[in-house]
Write a structure and sequence with these properties.
34% helix; 248 residues; 7 helices; single chain; globular; six-stranded parallel beta sheet
Length: 248
């Protein structure tokens, strides 16, 4: 199927916060990628918002280097995925530059997924797109300042907005991101489509509603329903147009 359609995927070793967890998931991936599906993998990321959860970049980077060595003959793009602010504020610098604690510099990663959500910052829909675009531009600008232009492939790893049935989310400043399909459509057409028009690939969170999905925790510790974030409902019907407008 993938060969015929020319499709590829980004896959990952999600549980890489500890060496033990990384080794376990890597072993499972080795069995799959060395026997089949090798042609389907476009990129491999190590960790899923590990820095956001407090993992030190110099603990994570050796696992990225190891994965690059292990899977280098199969996939040329190996990196990580994290929240936009961890790339913007310098937390991820050792991963970008390959320089940890004064040790001899190794080649930095050449593939990064940057997550950014106006919703999770509690932004009203009227300001959500501006916040989303500014966050990504700050993160991408910092990465390129360190690594140089066109040396790191950067994509928006996750963004989205909950539709009808989702939860609202209030920021510490009192602004509120209001869930709703109309707001999701607005964010997609003004935010996601703008980023695509700027030449940055976007992973939209997510394709389909998952009403069975467990709730996630926001920064304030409150639980939020993630069962209604799909661009399509559970019957695989699109909630709104996924065709981007033409920008002049």
């Amino acid at each position: 199927m993938y060969m015929g359609l020319g499709q590829q995927t980004e896959t990952h070793v999600r549980r890489a916060d500890t060496q033990e967890a990384y080794e376990a998931e890597k072993a499972a991936l080795v069995k799959i990628l060395t026997s089949q599906y090798t042609f389907t993998v476009y990129a491999l990321t190590i960790g899923s918002e590990s820095l956001y959860r407090g993992v030190d970049a110099c603990d994570l980077f050796p696992r990225i280097v190891d994965a690059r060595s292990t899977f280098g003959s199969i996939v040329k793009r190996v990196g990580t995925v994290d929240s936009w602010n961890k790339f913007q504020d310098g937390t991820a610098d050792p991963i970008i530059t390959g320089n940890c604690d004064g040790q001899p510099s190794l080649p930095g990663t050449t593939f990064l997924l940057v997550n950014a959500f106006g919703y999770w910052q509690g932004m009203d829909i009227t300001n959500a797109t501006a916040t989303y675009l500014d966050d990504l531009q700050q993160a991408i600008g910092h990465i390129q300042d360190l690594a140089g232009l066109n040396t790191v492939e950067i994509m928006n790893g996750e963004t989205g907005w909950p539709g009808d049935g989702g939860d609202n989310h209030e920021s510490e400043k009192g602004t509120v991101a209001v869930a709703g399909t109309k707001n999701a459509e607005t964010f997609f057409s003004t935010g996601v489509c703008t980023m695509l028009a700027m030449g940055v690939d976007v992973f939209y969170f997510e394709a389909f509603d998952e009403k069975h999905k467990e709730k996630s925790k926001a920064d304030n510790g409150e639980e939020r329903n993630e069962g209604h974030w799909g661009a399509f409902d559970e019957k695989r019907t699109p909630k709104f147009s996924l065709i981007c407008p033409t920008f002049d």
